[in-house]
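Cross-posting from the modeling subforum.

Setting up a comparison between two proteins and wanted a second pair of eyes on the formatting. Protein 1 (sequence, then structure tokens):
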Amino acid sequence: MFSDRKAIDQVSGWLTLYDDGFVDRTWTGPPQFKFMSDTVPPHHHFIDGVATHDLSIDTNTNLRVRIYLPELPDSTQKLPIILHFHGGGFCISQADWFMYYNFYMRLAREAKAIVVSTYLRLAPECRLPAAINDGYSTLLWLQDLENRKTHQSLLSSNGDFSRIFLLGDSTGGNIVHQVAKKSAGENMGVAGAILIHPGFLRSVRSKSELENPESPFLTLDMLDKFLKLGLPEGSTKDHQITCPMAEPLEGLDLPPYLVCVAEQDLMIATEVEFYEAMKKSGNNVKLLVSPEVGHSFYLNKIAIDVDPVTSKQTHKLIQEITHFIRNH
């Protein structure tokens, strides 16, 4: 009976786990932040220059994507494709949450790119590598569109399949790196990889984990519990998915990388460690540091609206991503 269900753990207001395995993702934190996890229905008409669509791309696995299509005066123009993987510690969030909608509407419009955001399976019901497989399956679907094995008018007519950019927020950045490795050398049109505040960690606390401030977007509790629920059973944070800088990075035939970090992020020390390891291994990698802000600052509409620093750094982040895309 439902009345006999007992909560056995909670993760920083984002997730409650029950003794029968049920997972409740109802937001229980500060009420002023709840709207950022509200879902936004798709709109096929253009709002602020962008239309959105939800598509099923594999009926067998129920894999779906959300598409952000910018309005263009020239209907013959082919647009780069941003393949987006959302964050959430592998355990929460969806592609249609307001926090993503608000940012990726703006990015699609300003970068003049089509954003394809995958609805990833979530842990603990579906542990890794489920979300990685979903991301790679979406890339394969884009290749099927290019090769005309299937057709989707929004993308087939408007997308440039030779310029696909993998982009991930937080643990979505981990998925970007894994999909980039999986597709390396396969001529799948991946022109670049953009990792925004990736969830790279070690089992031992880093200096930034010990010293930087926590926020509703990232706490030490979230780092520990989400990854325990998301990683393959029995794994630690030293697993290659969360600690890729501990494995060889030479000779992987990776595309150019843009690694974006925030000065006050709990994970900046290990994120920069990854960047340094990529650079030392001879990979084409660029680092963007956003000063005076924390993890996923650009998804926090409240801060963007009221804090000039957050607003300025969000604008700069979009500029740098746009510049990266236009130059690759």
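Protein 2 (same layout):
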Amino acid sequence: MSSPPPPPHFVFVSVFLFIFFLHHSVTTTIASSSSQTLNTNTESFINPKLPPRTLSSSKKFEGSSNLVHLRYHMGPVLSSSPINLYLVWYGLWNKPQKQLIKGFLLSLSPSTPPTPSPSVSDWWRTISLYTDQTGANVSRKVLIAGEYSDLKHSHGTQLTRLDIQQVIATAVKSAPFPVDHRNGVYLVLSSQDVVVQDFCRAVCGFHYFTFPSMVGYTIPYAWIGNSAKQCPEVCAYPFAIPGYMAGGGPGALLPPNRDIGVDGMISVIAHELAELATNPLVNAWYAGEDPTAPTEIGDLCEGLYGTGGGGGYIGQVMRDRGGRTYNLNGRWGKRFLVQWIWSPALQACAGPNALD
């Protein structure tokens, strides 16, 4: 096998990525040294200070001198409507896990009646503000257009980055899973028993585009792994924290859907979809001069989930009566905890659960 291409953009694991610009870019309520709560009749708001992620000390701070210089590089965005998502379930997934992930993805589009605010659709509205050189916005309509289950791990349980494209190629050869080179986006979702190159050590997910020699067309795709058994303290943070840090803070937060791996995975899926939509061919919206290691709209706000974030605080998020933490409402009563995204209108990190 030939050497893989220059490394695609990937999700770094530092929780402090936004600290350097947050106080200059976002009007926030600065958290006190103890957890802040505001009790209401049905739920509370909490802004806990959590220990740093386990790999934060070795994190290369991407584009720290370019954080306020997010620029458009004349490439396309995902403006064709609808955005067709094709899901490749690689490995063993149970039905509730699939339904939870699909519930989040289906919540990205506006619904009738509207989902209560703050909603996943409200969150995607920020991504839809990005345009291409013709002025066309990222589409607000996102559909699940197809699914393929690779139950037998057709390429094994240990994958390289380039193997992800081979997984996609196997899926599209299995009719009726199409090669949708106009509106299509492929999401490869690997189960908790699958080891992927750099997973846990340096990445929780990444996005890139397929090579015509492998799939037939250049199509945006993303890979995200379920970290439940391998590194939940890294890729499912803040629902899990390293054991040696457990005595230094309030402890891990309770996931909104009682599945640490999948609940953590959903925020990574959101991160990658936001960046894939605004920089699908790695030549549209990013900061820095190196397109092989761009700082994108998710990177600018990684670790920030609400107002008052910074200095180790994740920001004001909601907590239900069962103690489960969330900041967005989805369809069918589902709730999710998803990081904020850089807004081109505000020139700051933004989320629909903002309190100011």
